[in-house]
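Researcher: I'd like a structural prediction for the single chain below. Treat it as a standalone chain; there are no partners to consider.
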Amino acid sequence: MDLRRSRVYAILIDSPEAEAAEAAAFWSAALGVPTRVDPEEPQFISLHEAIPGLAVAVQPIDGAPRYHLDIETMTSRPRPHG
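Model: Treating it as a single chain, here is the predicted structure.
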C-alpha cells in the first residue's frame, strides 16, 4: 500500500518578462519582505520569507500575468512491524 502526501510548496506570481522586476518590487513592498535571486535558480525572484513554510516568488514568463501553486507530492510505503 502506498501512502501519498501532498502539500502546497510554492506560490508563484507569473509576470511578463519585461514587467517581472517591477512586479517583484511591488510585491516586496506590499509584503514587507526583501527580494532575493538564488544563483542556482535565477529564473525566480524570491520574496524571501513572505509566507513562512512556503516559497513565494515572481517568475518571468512569456504570456499574460497569472498566479499558480506548486504542489509537492511524496509517496512512501509503510514499513512492516516486527
